[in-house]
Amino acid sequence: MGLVAVYRGHCLIVIVAPEIKYVKIIEMPFIIEALYLIFISLIFVTIDLNNYSGKCMVNLDKQKKMQALIIIISHHIIATLANFGWLFSSKIILILFCVTIVSIIIHWMINGNKCLATQKLNTLCDFPDDHYFPDFFYIIGLKKYDFWNRWGSYLFYIVVLLIGLYRLFTF
């Protein structure tokens, strides 16, 4: 059972679960923004499967195809959150964004500036080690520049992390 209410200009969903005896309030902007995030991610998954990683999927057995698909979808969701999360207004998404950015930067520093998901997909698809993940920056052509791959991506993520933190603590 549920109820929709308006509180301080936000549309809220109040979920009442009688068997658990609790009330949970979810701000609609989070739900809508999460759906936008997933939708944008699925656009990138479609582009990836049609133009890049999908070419290797034809030759994989059923289990490896499923592994590759899980890696591709989850990787695009994480990349979309990392690249565009600072544009959202939901506190939950901004927190997830900040945690994701810090985790990505630490992961890259520990793993020699390489992404484990990209490495795993490259192994599954028999792509060369220097094959890049086709995210937004690959599609617009930034990953072809050495500066972007060495320092530009770090600089971008630090700047948007600062913007995300500012937005998190001021809105």
How would you sum up this structure, described in words?
Strand 2 and strand 3 (22-27) form a beta hairpin. The protein has helices spanning 28-51, 54-57, 62-84, 91-110, 116-125, 136-139, 146-170; strands at residues 2-7, 10-17, 22-27. The chain has one domain (29-170). It is mainly α.
Describe this protein with a few key phrases:
3 strands; mainly alpha; 64% helix; disordered N terminus; 12% strand; three-stranded antiparallel sheet; 171 residues
Q: Helices and strands in order, then pairings?
A:
Layout: E1 2-7, E2 10-17, E3 22-27, H1 28-51, H2 54-57, H3 62-84, H4 91-110, H5 116-125, H6 136-139, H7 146-170
Helix pairs in contact: 1-3, 3-4, 3-5, 4-7
Average pLDDT level: 87
Q: What percent of the residues sit in helical stretches (DSSP H or I)?
A: 55-70%
Instruction: Please summarize the sheet with the most strands.
Output: 3 strands, antiparallel
Low-pLDDT parts are: 1-14
Tally of distinct domains: 1
The arrangement of helices and strands along the chain is EEEHHHHHHH
Question: What structural category arises from helix and sheet content?
Answer: mainly alpha
Q: Report Rg.
A: 19 Å
Alpha plus pi helix count: 7
* Shape summary: globular
Tally of DSSP β-strands? 3
Oligomer: single chain
Determine the strand fraction and express it as a percent band. 5-15%
Strand order of the largest sheet: 1-2-3
Distance between the termini: 31 Å
